[in-house]
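Q: What would this chain look like folded?
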Amino acid sequence: MSAATTVRSTRRRGGVGALWAGNPQAVLQRSFLAARSSNWVVVVSGFFEPVLYLASMGIGLGALVGEVQTSTGTVVPYAAYIAPALLAVSAMNGAVYDSTWNVFFKLNYGKLYEGMLSTSLGPLDVALGEILYALMRGLVYACGFMVIMQLFGLNLAPTAILALPAVVLIAFGFASLGMAITSYMKTFQHMDWITLIMLPMFLFSATFFPITQYPEPIQFVVQVFPLWHGVELIRGLTTGSLSLALLWHVLYYVVMIAVGLFFTTKRLRALFLD
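A: My prediction, written as structure tokens:
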């Protein structure tokens, strides 16, 4: 056994060295190289979906609805009400797509992570590298949608610029939790659960109408959804309705990121190192 192999074996037995080599950029670089041969029609479709929703409902239906009151009491045009929600949805879609379906294939069929973890990389390097790539995809979607919002005059306050770091936080939360959940799935049928969860979140997270339209028990359920917190955070920033409640939404995503990273790292180590 070579000296390098001996050192690697020692590092894997426990401690920080078993989890972290400080090189998630290697995983990120590999993802960018692989993306060159991706089907870009699928990638671009993730951007146009919320744009089409905005055009059909925000502009078309908005002419009939008129103005809507936000959760903080601010009255805004209907298009300006749903646009920040669709921005959060755009970030979620970009992050979830890469952290679920792509990760599932690499984990169960491509055996990519098994090869990565046979090198000096640790589970946390792999998790962070994959999550950062999913985060960047979500951010690209969101930046494009922010441009659309600006062109239509739907950014109603200077604080709308803060929606971009908020989008990063949202994408990070969904990517980390998405990868954690995917690491426990074994068949393609299990992946249907992702759609089963995302569709209700998209429809009922105060995306198209105020949460006050629901009965109180349903409101409580909606407030558990991560997308609702993202919608409220971005809506507050783009409409200028700032309050201390926004910090609660930020904290929700910080906890979500920590939980996702913990379980992803734990699962990868259990699968390939223990």
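The beta strands are 67-69, 75-77.
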